[in-house]
Structure formats: structure tokens, C-alpha cells
Amino acid sequence: MTALSAPANPGTLPLLLRKGPATWFICILLIAAPSMYAARIWLDSGQSWLHPELFATSAYIWNFPETETFGDRLRKALDWKAFDPNVNRVRPLNDLAETADAIARPFIARYVVPQPSITPTALLTAVVTPVAVMGFLLRDGVSGLRAASITGVLISSVGFLSVLIPYIRPAKKLVFLFLAASIWFAFSHRRTKSSSDHLFVVASLLLGFFSDEMGLIAYPAVALLFPSMFLRASKWKAGLFASLPVIFLLVTYVILPFVYIRFSVHGAWDAIGDGKKLEILRYLFDPSFYRVSAIHIADAFLTTFGIEERSWPFEAVALSILFGAPLIALLIRVPVYEGSPSHGLVASGSTVLLSGIYTTLLDWYPFPGQVSYLGSFTFYYHSSMSIFLVVWLYYLWGVIISQTKQYAILSRVSLFSGIILCVLIMFSNFRMFQRINDLTRMIHVFPYTSLSIFSEIENHLNEIRAAAPGTPIRVEFQRDPEGVIREFSAKARDVFGERWQDNDYSRTFMAVSANPIMKDFHLEALLHAFFPYNSFDVQIMAVSGEQPEPSGVAAGTSPAPANAPPTVPEALQATIRPGGNVLLTWRPVAGATEVRVERRDGAGFPFQELGVTGPGSSGHLNTSLTSGVEYAWRLRACNSLGCSPYSPEVAISAP
Questions:
Q1: How far, in Å, are 55, 254, 627 from residue 52 at the CA level?
Q2: Closest C-alpha to 401, from 149, 571, 655, 100
């Protein structure tokens, strides 16, 4: 029996293993080649990077490395302010995964390699997601060649790679994992009607709900793709599936606040109480919102299938193909029933539409009116759209083959043309990801480069591993703002052409080059995230050959008089960060063992001490701000001889 006439339900034995050696070898190659290439990028110090906003989390979890136990650190997953200072997200599983990753990172760095994105969550996502997708395709009765080709496209997609190669937060990794698992179990339930499969779907969806807000879109997606989850199902199955939103709200509104009040050092938590969530619904009545949604959907289509071009003709063609293919299938009266390629094509097209609207709604929550620069390439925030588009490709291919199966030659041409197209998409995807990841990485680590940072760490790796705790290790990082600007300009021009400055990537980089996300003081936090048991003497050098400052004094620090309290902290600035946080920065004070940060919560209120930073510090992230309140901050530096006078105040209204 050939692959084209294989039975629809091949049983538990994967269809792949029923083929001859040549087919088996090609299938392995279609999976192994993109997997090996993805692994090579993953292990490349120049491609992987760690988002600076996560340093505070690692520092919190490893605050007392010598005295805290594994259980003490794991319990910190309940301290929600360490992960989401503003109460506006319901993702406790992200907090748990981020805690587990932070706990594991020093051991991976010490015994394997200091690679920021090699974490337990990333490894689990990298394995489970393609295995679940491949298993779903094989059990649907398709040929191993088709299943391997489509899985290879997923592995090579920017959406999939962007949740593995950089380490931003594990939230999107978990969404990817649970979305793939829910599709796998829902398909299995359609075939077997097994109660356990139904419960696994429900569990996967709920776990996705509590991983990230993007996980919520999996619920209507599964309902559209697999209506047997609630239609023609037993009453308890239909009732359980229909009640998932109620269960989510009940856990969010009742159970989680109780857990946090009882076990978290940060006390009460009420994400539903954030009134801004209801305000975003007004965007649904704004015509420009749907224009931006259409752009995001078109760009996600182009990105997933290996096309970098971003212009309205390409986007129009992408939307025409995406939604025209299901319409044509309906017009030519292809049979539509659950399990048929035509139903899958219509349903998957609908999930892409819904997910595009939903992700744009999430984008507009903090930044209304914008076409997200990351969303324009399905990078991280819009990453799960890649799975919906790969499923759409699978069903489109199925419709084409079903319409040509009575003609042997056309059927074979459809099969092998599709395989060749998928291979071309894989090559294009990898090239595109590296180029886009380069731009995104430079935005986040400017004025440094990932390669310079991790090469320097690797140069000292043996010394770090052999050093006794408390022994300072001198590490010199090289700062090269002009070189990074030149590199970004060249790469952006390569991607976007002569109009390379007319896009959000370039505009974001221009803003970052004036106020970098990666500050000098972040480098010691980065080292601490990898090696919390070691002490470091961090020096910053300019690429021009500038000599490092004397040990223990950061660049730009003014000398302190001997045998005297430190001088007043200078150049205090307050900058609003995405999400409503405020970043305080100042010039490091020589001779200070600590800097005390004070805040006034509105005019007429007294200043209260907010926190104490360590020696050489030059920044503090301010969280838990109330919109519309005008806050003011001031600093004073202290050592064993006393404290300086207060710095001049800075004030800002919380967004």
C-alpha cells in the first residue's frame, strides 16, 4: 500500500515506520537537518542573549546563595512582585518556570556551558513541541514525508526559534508547549473518544491559561479545530469544556489571591482588578485596530513561510492566499466534516484570524496604535501564530492532495512539490531568523554584543569554576556603541533595503541607543545570574582602548574624599519603561557601600525608604505604581562614616 492510499487511522504504529528505507531516511533528514541547524544557532554565543529585565529575578532568587536551600528558592515563585511588579498578568506557571530556570542556570553554567537560553523549560519546549506536532500529523494518517516536512517548517520558523534562542521569559515557551499538547490530545480524543484524552486537553488548556495571556487563544482554536470536544460529546465532557473560562476566572479571582496572601511575602494580588483590561475592548470599535490586525496576520504568514518582504502588495497577497484558500475549498464543494482537510483548512484559517486580532489587542494594551516591531516578524510575542499557520499549511496540502488523488501523476506532483517547497521555506526561515534575531539582540544588549559578553565569560570560565567563594575575579567587558550602531545600520539596511530607517526596528534602536536597556551595572547582575557563589570585579572598557577604572570603581564614578562620607549621588534620572515601571539611574558613587532610594507617593506625602542598593550601583527598577499619581524620588549614598546629603528630587507621573 502506498503512502497516498494509506488508511486514515493507522493505529498506534507510526505511519513513518511502515515505509521503505529510502522514505524513512528522507523523513529523518527532513527532521534532523532543521533540528541540527537550530541546535547550532542555539549554542552560538553570538545569537543567544538574556533580556536585562530578568536580572532582577535571578538576583532575587539567588539573594543568599550560601544559606538558602533549594526549597527556599523554589518557594520564591510565589513572590509575584519579583516577576510582574504591576498586577496585570495571570501567569503563575511562568513564574514557576522562571524560578526553576534561574535555579538551574548556575549549575548548567558551571558544569556544561554559560549559555543563557539553555534551561529546563527551553529544553522541554524544544523536544515536546515538535514531537507533539509530528505525532498529531502521523496519527492523522498522512505520509511520513508530509508530516516530516511540515514539522521541519515549524522547527525552522521564527516563531519557534524566537522562544528558544533568546531568553526573554519562559511564558511563550510554555504557551508553545501546551498549545501543541492540546492539539495532539484533542486529535487523539476525536479518534478514540477517550475520557483521559479529553481530560488531558482540558489540563493542557488550563496550564496554557496560567502560563501567559497568549495561552487563552488556544481555547477557541481547539474548539474550532476539534468541535467533538463539546459537540456530540457526553454531557460531562461538553460541560467541562464549556466551563473552562469560568474555572480560569474562579482560580484567578479566588484561589490564587488566597495562595498569595497566605504564602507570598508580597501579599495580596488581584489581576482582575486592573481596570485597563476592560478598556482595551474599546479598540474593537476602532477601524484602525483591524488594519493593524490585518498587517500582523499578513506579516505572520509571510514570516512563517520564509518571506522577509514587508510591503502592502506582499501583505495583500498573503491575506488573499490565507483566507482565499478556505473560500475556494467551500466554493468547489469539498466535503466539510470534522477530520476532513477542508474543515481543518477553514478552522485553522479562522484560528489565525482570531489569534491575529487577539495579539494586536495585547500589543495595544500598553502601546495603542502601534504596529509591533516584534510582531511584524512573529518574534516571541506573536510566536504561537506559527503553530496555527503550520496547521493551516498542513490542511491546505491535504485539500490539494485530496482533489488530485484520482490522478496518480498529479497526486505525486502535489506531494513532492510540497516537500520541495517546505525545504525551501526551511532554508529561508533560518536565514531570516538569524538576521531578525541580530537586530532584536542588538536592541536589547546595546552598547555591548552577545559575542563579546559571553566570550569574555568563557575566557574566565576555568578561573571562575576553580575560585573559592568570595575571591574576586576581574572581568573586563568591552563597550562599543559606535560599532554596534554601524553593525545595526548595515544589517537593517540588508533586511529592509534603502528605507531601512522607516520601520519600528530602527526607531526602537534609535531610542535604545540614547537610553540603553543594558546598563553597565547589569553586567555584574548577569555574572551573578550564572555564578552566584563567586565574586567579581567588573570593569568596563571602551573599544577605543580606554583603560579600565581602578578596581571596584565603575566607569563614570567620581572619586570620593578619603575618610569621609560619600558624595551626593549625581545625574538622577527617572525613565518610564514598558509595562508602566520606572527605571531610576544615577552616576555610581565612589566609596559608597550602599545607596538608599526614597520615594514620595504624591504631593504632600512624606518620603519613605524604598530600597537599598549595593556598592557601585547605578540603577533601581521602581514598580507597583498607580496610574496618574505623581511620584518623586531622591537618593543618598552611605558608608561606615555616614551618609551624603540627599540628591535633587526627580518627579514623574505614572502612566
A1: 6, 33, 24
A2: 149
At 505, is the pLDDT very low, low, confident or very high (cuts 50, 70, 90)? confident
Radius of gyration of the chain (CA): 27
Query: What nine digits make up the cell of 273?
Result: 482588578
Residues sharing a CB contact under 8 Å with residue 167, sequence separation 6 or more, in sequence order: 48, 49, 50, 51, 54, 101, 116, 117, 119, 122
Q: How far apart are CA 415 and CA 4, in angstroms?
A: 9
Spatial CA neighbour of 45 closest among 461, 338, 394, 376: 461
Q: How confident is the model at residue 407 (pLDDT cuts 50, 70, 90)?
A: confident
Share above pLDDT 70 across residues of the chain, in percent, rounded to a whole number = 89
Q: Cell numbers 550560601 correspond to what residue?
A: 66
CA–CA gap between residue 308 and residue 306 (Å, rounded): 7
The span from the CA of 249 to the CA of 54, in Å, is 28
Answer for the pair 65, 40: CB distance below 8 angstroms, yes or no: no
Is the distance from CB of 599 to CB of 610 less than 8 angstroms? yes
User: Per-residue confidence at 86, pLDDT binned at 50, 70, 90?
Assistant: low
- pLDDT tens-digit readout, 533-554: 988 888 888 775 444 443 333 3
Backbone angles phi, psi at 14, to 5 degrees: -55, 135
Distance CA 412, CA 136 (A): 23
CA–CA dist 523, 55 (Å, integer): 9
Please state the φ and ψ torsions of residue 91, each to the nearest 5 degrees: -145, 65
Phi-psi category of residue 638: left, alpha or beta, with phi > 0 → left and psi -120 to 50 → alpha:
beta
Cis peptide before 21 (omega within 30 of 0): no
Query: H-helix or E-strand containing 525?
Result: helix 522-530
Measured CA to CA in angstroms, residue 196 lies from 186, 202, 409 at distances of 11, 10, 42
Helix/strand/coil percentages in the chain, nearest 5: 60, 10, 30
* Total residue length of the chain: 655
Over residues 231-251, the pLDDT tens digits come to: 888 999 999 999 999 999 999
Nearest to 134 by CA among 106, 162, 117, 154: 154
Stated as kind and residue range, the H or E segment containing 219 is: helix 218-225
SS3 readout for 88-108: CCCCHHHHHHHHHHHHHHHHH
Q: How far apart are CA 303 and CA 294, in angstroms?
A: 14
DSSP 305-334: TT----SHHHHHHHHHHHHHHHHHHHHTT-
Looking up cell 526596528 gives 505
pLDDT of residue 237: 94
Q: Check residue 542 and report its DSSP letter.
A: E
Residue whose grid cell is 539611574: 585
- 557 or 253, which is more confident: 253
pLDDT in tens, 259-280: 999 888 888 777 766 666 667 7
Between CA 465 and CA 587 the distance in angstroms is 32
